[in-house]
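Document type: protein sequence-to-structure record

Subject area: structural biology

Format: plain text, a pair of labelled lines:
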Amino acid sequence: MKSHAAWGTSKNAVKFRIPTADNLVPIRLDIEIDGQRFRDAFIWNPSDPDSEIVVFAKRTVKDLKLPPAFITQIAQSIQTQLTEFRSYEGQDMYTGEKVVPIKLDLRVNHTLIKDHFLWDLNNFESDPEEFAKTFCKDMDIEDPEVGPAIAIAIREQLYE
């Protein structure tokens, strides 16, 4: 695999963003308080106002009947991950011929997904959610939780 140094040799600099149609951030939560654990993964629009984070945390805690202490932890975790993502915004990202391997190794409910393929970092119209939908359809996977898990796994690897 080529090193990232090759990116710097290209004259095609664009501002940082995840190479997908929607510049959404993968968020992963794994919080444990007093022996109670909350785990989740989803995508977040970094353009949403930060006030939405607290609203989301409160709604999640209420819907899942979690102790109120989870509100702060959920909000802080989301905010930390968004802050890291935003720290890259505005930086130049050099585009040349660049494809990266994506590896899926997921267990979602009773479905095991193992696959690998290449993703073009220069195609900013790529859509992990559409890819996951097509993947599930092609593989006759009916579990509605599998597609979102695949899309999140793709976004996490692209973000890395």
About this structure: The first strand starts at residue 13 and ends at 15.
